[in-house]
Amino acid sequence: MMGEQARRASWVGLAVALLGVASLVVNITTIEQLSGEQEQFFAVRRTFSLLLNSGTAWAGVSVLAGAVMRRPGPAAITGMLAGTGALVVHYGLGELTGLMPAGSFSSNLFWFVAAILTGAPLGLVGALGRSRTRWGVAARLVVPLGAVVEPWSAGWWQSSALDSWPVKMSNPAAAVILTLLGLVGLTYAVRSRAAATTASEVAPVR
Q1: Quick one: which of 155, 159, 150 has its CA closest to 181?
Q2: What is the pLDDT of residues 158-177, one digit of tens each?
Q3: What is the pLDDT of residues 10-53, one digit of tens each?
Q4: Which of the chain's termini has less CB crowding within 10 Å, N or C?
């Protein structure tokens, strides 16, 4: 049992590390990008930056941690550690490599507090999402709904005349991708509930 828990924790750790590193790397901006020499690359990079630094992605890693750990207690703890761990990787690596200025940890304490406060509930959502009940379906809808709503709340569907070409391209591109991912997730959640209901109806009575 302990070996199984350790294996699950290692998968969570991998997801945390990947998010922390990837969300940092896609933020790297060069002089060539800002000067307009690499506008296409800038637009693509910024698209991935918006996606990997979105609230949906960061909330999703805590939900994923809870789903992997399954049991409520470990799910809540791991959900909290997942969000804060990804932040430690993100800002720690940023400072070590010089991609971020010294003091980035202290100047971004708000995000650590947010990760601590929301991590445990999100981990519980992930654990509950494994259930075939209506509550389980509701839990599985949380991240996909966030993916659909975030582009609107973040203003990615709109652009200003003052925005540069890469911004005008990357905002709607990220909005489309995140929305499509959200719709796929919503479809899966609804269909999994329907499949479970059908299976229970046709199951033989013993």
Answers
A1: 150
A2: 888 888 888 999 999 999 99
A3: 888 899 999 999 999 999 988 888 787 888 999 999 999 999 99
A4: C
Q: Do the Cβ atoms of 95 and 32 come closer than 8 Å?
A: no
8-state DSSP, 131: S
Amino acid sitting at position 26? V
DSSP helix/strand/coil, 192: helix
Name residues whose C-beta falls within 8 Å of residue 24's C-beta, 6 or more positions apart in sequence: 89, 90, 93, 94, 99, 100
Q: Could you give the residue ranges of the DSSP H alpha helices within 27-103?
A: 31-35, 39-52, 55-69, 72-97
CB atoms within 10 A of CB 2: 6
Determine the pLDDT at residue 196: 53
* pTM recorded for the entire structure: 0.86
Nearest to 185 by CA among 20, 78, 83, 60: 60
DSSP state of 76: H
3-state secondary structure 136-156: HHHHHHHHHHHHHHHHHHCCC
Residue with tokens 């494994």: 130
Q: Which residue is it, tokens 């890469």?
A: 166
Residue 180: per-residue pLDDT: 97
